[in-house]
């Protein structure tokens, strides 16, 4: 206990409450080792008498000691050495106490009073609100004239709020296009349909100050297609009070600090967001703008109270604050355009909900999100844990009681327990009784299997060992009355799920008949709500979300950032938004989160209550197989990431996989431009290796653009077997169908973001004709029954098979369009364009340039290995001096000349595409334009 010096005496003498310990037996207190204890407040003790006792004690060399139980303790005279020794002993005892306090099996008893309990200020939970939960259906006939896409105008491509808007749209799977404000408007219509359902301005001033031409054009589009506008008022250094908004009967006041937000329960915009509550406390930021309308077209959507002395003055204590409008709706009665203006950005969590509702309302339901939410809470390692951290009987009872309370808010809810049977009864006697109580109530939970040993699956030597471990766990389950038919399993530490370990999937199928798993590792993204699921070998893998709790998160006092940080995540923060943005959420928590301070019970019960307070979401739960089936009814975009770019993935990857098994460059096509010849020339290089042939598509794997992609990463990597001298090898893949595949660039970049790209371009008219002849040579009935002109001139009302052939002839030749898609993900420095005519006439020079681009050393001398064959009409590989090896008879065919009318049609068709290609080549720094491209533009 700290000592009190002379200069502290006033504070002590004026203290309130406590017990006085005196060495004066005459004080009338109880004797305690020569020190009388006066029970009661120091205030009742005579001040003069206390001062007299204090001074007498100091003169004798004594100490006055303060403690929570003794406001002023007068001790017997002591020496400095005794004092120091006492302090050392006290420090040692404190260290021992806190070690015991944190780690002993009895720590939870000591901490019982510190356990947080769910405490959400919410009228609806207390049954005192009379405001109905209105969830408006925004659908109207106007939705048929617009596409479900958002056009976002930002100040710059790096604007903070612009990025937040884009992220919010991505989280909710909404299509959008970003344009920098101030430039010309993009094309707004497609035939008789609007391309965008809502227009969003990151900075409202960019809309208010648009040039007259663009403003009139945009307003005309909004009126004609009933498209609404959303604007965010940007913060400014200039403070405005009652300033007129340009062009609108609306006054604004800015740079305010606000508190206690509420919503207009009568607003037709509210759908996801529920009114009737108050978000108590200060709102984030000190640069809020509020609105004062001067026309009947305006209606407040959200209010808040003034929390600032800078505007409006101070309110008298107990007086009623005038609510200030922070979000306002324009019904369009002023100029026939509906708008919603936000007085701040998206830092405030409630604005994120209102923004989603605004998109739904202004798009007439085209951009509405589904309000049904499915939840699953997995408790991993229910029997795995160090002594002192496991569950006792009262913890199990608390879990059962919390489960019942949650089930009242989330129909069908049950905790899903994952078990590794080997660790059953490995705790203290009290904790072992907790294990028994779990099994006594096993029918009240759902169950899923871990590994018996809790060992990572990729560490097993073979599949037999892996299955043997699983069978041990299955036997344990049957012996202890645990259901084994959930068809759901989770791998310890996510090992083997992604990156995929094939033996795990085989063993799961064989032992447990697994149909569903889950993982945090695919894609390994932050924030977690961006994760998506995938299907591998008919096992549905759901994305696991994080709830902010980990194995070591046991006590609220040791939570990173403290309870305030956890509550922030629950009340509008990361955890809350995860449920809002994901139709299905699978949360993982650990057994240790349910003992000790029982943080998991606090977290899940609190966030569910908060969701019920502020949203109209319909929460429910179901077994994992049901959740997975519903999840994969949604269009899920599978995207394999490169495990080599993630340290975490490398640690849980199968030991028989290597980062050297992925290609370093791709030949992406397009078809009928000479890609097979280039493949042959590359294969001649001693330091370049291609994939092994596919039994279905020969030298092409065709992984990124078709059904093969769903066979998984492991299937793809098996085409690139490890060789001893891997450092000298440049692995590559050639699939000519990649060039114009819509999803291919994004998928390729996710896996091979550092790879280089090689493409070959020839006259698009010539390429189209060559493809037509190729299909004829392979007996295609449509090509045999229709002329080339009939094919390329087919209308959209023609038979589908004819239209399909037309598209395969024409679409790949839109070179600039497809290259732009690739350049969305790859840099220009990663792209090498080969002139196909030059590859045919002078392949040696082309291959020398390609080697420089790939930075391959030493350089391979192709002049000694390629020779022109006059019979074939192209260069062939030199073998044994005078002999050559040429491509098959199907290559280099001579066709009948193209019809003149077909040639002219194609020249007109490709004019805009060829012009765009010239501009693109110049932007990429190409010094020369191919002769065929010059000729095409000249002829036109």
TrEMBL record:
<dbReference type="InterPro" id="IPR021930">
    <property type="entry name" value="Heparan_SO4_deacetylase_dom"/>
</dbReference>
<keyword id="KW-0333">Golgi apparatus</keyword>
<keyword id="KW-0472">Membrane</keyword>
<feature type="binding site">
    <location>
        <begin position="891"/>
        <end position="895"/>
    </location>
    <ligand>
        <name>3'-phosphoadenylyl sulfate</name>
    </ligand>
</feature>
<keyword id="KW-0808">Transferase</keyword>
<dbReference type="InterPro" id="IPR056793">
    <property type="entry name" value="HSNSD_N"/>
</dbReference>
<keyword id="KW-0378">Hydrolase</keyword>
<keyword id="KW-0812">Transmembrane</keyword>
<dbReference type="InterPro" id="IPR000863">
    <property type="entry name" value="Sulfotransferase_dom"/>
</dbReference>
<feature type="domain" description="Heparan sulfate-N-deacetylase N-terminal">
    <location>
        <begin position="146"/>
        <end position="362"/>
    </location>
</feature>
<dbReference type="InterPro" id="IPR037359">
    <property type="entry name" value="NST/OST"/>
</dbReference>
<dbReference type="Pfam" id="PF12062">
    <property type="entry name" value="HSNSD-CE"/>
</dbReference>
<keyword id="KW-0735">Signal-anchor</keyword>
<dbReference type="GO" id="GO:0015016">
    <property type="term" value="F:heparan sulfate N-sulfotransferase activity"/>
</dbReference>
<feature type="active site" description="For sulfotransferase activity">
    <location>
        <position position="672"/>
    </location>
</feature>
<dbReference type="GO" id="GO:0015012">
    <property type="term" value="P:heparan sulfate proteoglycan biosynthetic process"/>
</dbReference>
<keyword id="KW-1133">Transmembrane helix</keyword>
<comment type="pathway">
    <text>Glycan metabolism; heparan sulfate biosynthesis.</text>
</comment>
<keyword id="KW-0325">Glycoprotein</keyword>
<feature type="transmembrane region" description="Helical">
    <location>
        <begin position="84"/>
        <end position="102"/>
    </location>
</feature>
<feature type="domain" description="Sulfotransferase">
    <location>
        <begin position="663"/>
        <end position="879"/>
    </location>
</feature>
<dbReference type="Pfam" id="PF25119">
    <property type="entry name" value="HSNSD_N"/>
</dbReference>
<comment type="pathway">
    <text>Glycan metabolism; heparin biosynthesis.</text>
</comment>
<keyword id="KW-1015">Disulfide bond</keyword>
<protein>
    <recommendedName>
        <fullName>[heparan sulfate]-glucosamine N-sulfotransferase</fullName>
        <ecNumber>2.8.2.8</ecNumber>
    </recommendedName>
</protein>
<dbReference type="GO" id="GO:0030210">
    <property type="term" value="P:heparin proteoglycan biosynthetic process"/>
</dbReference>
<dbReference type="InterPro" id="IPR027417">
    <property type="entry name" value="P-loop_NTPase"/>
</dbReference>
<dbReference type="Pfam" id="PF00685">
    <property type="entry name" value="Sulfotransfer_1"/>
</dbReference>
<dbReference type="GO" id="GO:0019213">
    <property type="term" value="F:deacetylase activity"/>
</dbReference>
<feature type="disulfide bond">
    <location>
        <begin position="876"/>
        <end position="886"/>
    </location>
</feature>
<feature type="binding site">
    <location>
        <position position="770"/>
    </location>
    <ligand>
        <name>3'-phosphoadenylyl sulfate</name>
    </ligand>
</feature>
<feature type="domain" description="Heparan sulphate-N-deacetylase deacetylase">
    <location>
        <begin position="372"/>
        <end position="576"/>
    </location>
</feature>
<comment type="similarity">
    <text>Belongs to the sulfotransferase 1 family. NDST subfamily.</text>
</comment>
<dbReference type="GO" id="GO:0000139">
    <property type="term" value="C:Golgi membrane"/>
</dbReference>
<dbReference type="GO" id="GO:0016787">
    <property type="term" value="F:hydrolase activity"/>
</dbReference>
<keyword id="KW-0511">Multifunctional enzyme</keyword>
């Amino acid at each position: 206990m700290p000592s009190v010096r002379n200069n502290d005496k006033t504070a002590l003498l004026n203290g309130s409450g406590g017990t006085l310990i005196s060495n004066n037996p005459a004080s009338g207190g109880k004797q305690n080792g020569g020190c009388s204890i006066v029970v009661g407040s120091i205030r009742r003790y005579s001040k003069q008498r206390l001062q007299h006792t204090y001074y007498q004690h100091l003169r004798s060399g004594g100490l006055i000691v303060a403690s929570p139980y003794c406001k002023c303790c007068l001790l017997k005279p002591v020496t400095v050495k005794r004092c120091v020794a006492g302090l050392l002993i006290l420090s040692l005892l404190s260290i021992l106490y806190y070690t015991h306090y944190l780690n002993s099996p009895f720590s939870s008893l000591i901490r019982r009073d510190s356990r947080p309990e769910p405490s959400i200020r919410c009228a609806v939970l207390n049954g005192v609100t009379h405001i109905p939960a209105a969830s408006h259906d925004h659908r109207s006939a106007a939705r048929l004239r617009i596409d479900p896409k958002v056009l976002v105008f930002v100040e710059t491509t790096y604007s903070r709020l612009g990025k937040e808007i884009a992220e919010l749209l991505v989280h909710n799977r909404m299509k959008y296009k970003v344009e920098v404000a101030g430039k010309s408007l993009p094309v707004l219509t497609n035939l008789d349909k609007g391309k965008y359902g809502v227009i969003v301005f990151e900075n409202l001033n960019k809309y208010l100050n648009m040039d007259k031409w663009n403003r009139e054009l945009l307003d005309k589009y909004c009126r004609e297609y009933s498209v609404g506008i959303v604007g965010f008022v940007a913060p400014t250094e200039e403070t405005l009070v009652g300033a007129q908004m340009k062009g609108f009967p609306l006054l604004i006041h800015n740079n305010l600090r606000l508190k206690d937000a509420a919503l207009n329960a009568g607003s037709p915009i509210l759908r996801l967001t529920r009114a009737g509550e108050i978000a108590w406390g200060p709102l984030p930021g000190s640069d809020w703008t509020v609105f004062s309308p001067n026309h009947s077209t305006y209606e407040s959507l959200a209010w808040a109270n003034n929390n600032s002395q800078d505007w409006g003055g101070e309110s008298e204590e107990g007086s009623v604050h005038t609510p200030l409008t922070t979000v306002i709706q324009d019904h369009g009665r002023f100029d026939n355009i509906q708008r919603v203006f936000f007085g701040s950005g998206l830092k405030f969590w409630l604005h994120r909900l209102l923004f989603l509702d605004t998109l739904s309302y202004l798009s007439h339901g085209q951009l509405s999100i589904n309000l049904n939410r499915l939840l699953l809470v997995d408790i991993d390692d229910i029997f795995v844990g160090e002594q002192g951290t496991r569950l006792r009987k009262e913890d199990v009872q608390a879990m059962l009681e919390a489960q019942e309370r949650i089930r009242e808010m989330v129909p069908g809810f049950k905790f899903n327990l994952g078990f590794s049977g080997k660790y059953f009864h490995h705790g203290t006697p009290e904790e072992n009784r907790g294990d028994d109580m779990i099994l006594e109530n096993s029918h009240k939970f759902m169950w899923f299997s871990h590994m018996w040993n809790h060992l990572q699956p990729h560490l097993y030597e073979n599949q037999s060992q892996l299955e043997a471990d699983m069978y041990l766990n299955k036997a344990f389950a049957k012996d202890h009355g645990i259901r084994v038919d959930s068809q759901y399993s989770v791998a310890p530490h996510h090992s083997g799920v992604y990156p995929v370990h094939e033996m795990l999937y085989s063993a799961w199928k064989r032992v447990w008949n697994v149909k569903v798993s889950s993982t945090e590792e695919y894609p390994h993204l932050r924030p977690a709500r961006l994760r998506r699921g995938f299907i591998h070998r008919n096992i549905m893998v759901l994305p696991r979300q994080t709830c902010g709790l980990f194995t070591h998160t046991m006590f609220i006092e040791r939570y990173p950032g403290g309870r305030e940080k956890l509550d922030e995540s629950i009340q509008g923060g990361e955890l809350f938004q995860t449920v809002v943005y994901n139709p299905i959420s699978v949360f993982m928590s650990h057994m240790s989160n349910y003992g000790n301070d029982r943080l998991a019970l606090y977290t899940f019960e609190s966030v569910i209550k908060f969701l019920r307070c502020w949203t109209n979401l319909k929460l429910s739960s179901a077994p994992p197989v049901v959740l997975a089936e519903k999840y994969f009814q949604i269009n899920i975009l599978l995207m394999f990431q490169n495990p080599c770019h993630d340290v975490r993935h490398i640690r849980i990857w199968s030991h028989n996989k290597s980062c050297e098994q992925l290609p370093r460059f791709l030949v992406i096509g397009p078809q009928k431009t000479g890609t097979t010849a280039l493949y042959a020339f590359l294969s001649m290089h001693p330091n370049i290796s291609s994939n092994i042939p596919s039994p279905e598509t020969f030298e092409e794997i065709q992984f990124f653009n078709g059904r093969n992609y769903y066979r998984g990463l492991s299937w793809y990597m098996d085409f690139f077997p490890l060789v001893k001298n891997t450092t000298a090898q440049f692995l590559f893949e050639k699939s000519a169908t990649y060039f114009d595949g819509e999803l291919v660039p994004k998928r390729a970049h996710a896996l091979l973001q550092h790879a280089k790209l090689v493409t070959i371009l020839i006259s698009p008219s010539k390429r189209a004709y060559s493809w037509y002849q190729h299909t004829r040579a392979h007996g295609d009935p449509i090509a045999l029954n229709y002329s080339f002109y009939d094919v390329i001139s087919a209308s959209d009302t023609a038979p589908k098979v004819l239209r399909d052939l037309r598209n395969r002839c024409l679409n790949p030749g839109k070179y600039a369009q497809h290259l732009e898609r690739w350049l969305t993900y790859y840099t220009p420095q990663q792209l090498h364009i080969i002139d196909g005519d030059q590859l045919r006439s002078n392949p040696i020079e082309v291959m020398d340039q390609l080697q420089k681009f790939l930075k391959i050393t030493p350089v391979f001398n192709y002049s000694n290995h390629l020779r022109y064959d006059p019979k074939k009409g192209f260069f062939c590989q030199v073998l044994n001096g005078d002999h050559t090896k040429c491509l098959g008879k199907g290559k280099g065919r001579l066709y009948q000349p193209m019809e003149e009318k077909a040639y002219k049609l194609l020249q007109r068709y490709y004019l805009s595409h060829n012009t765009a290609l010239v501009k693109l080549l110049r932007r990429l720094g190409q010094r020369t334009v191919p002769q065929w491209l010059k000729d095409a533009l000249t002829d036109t």
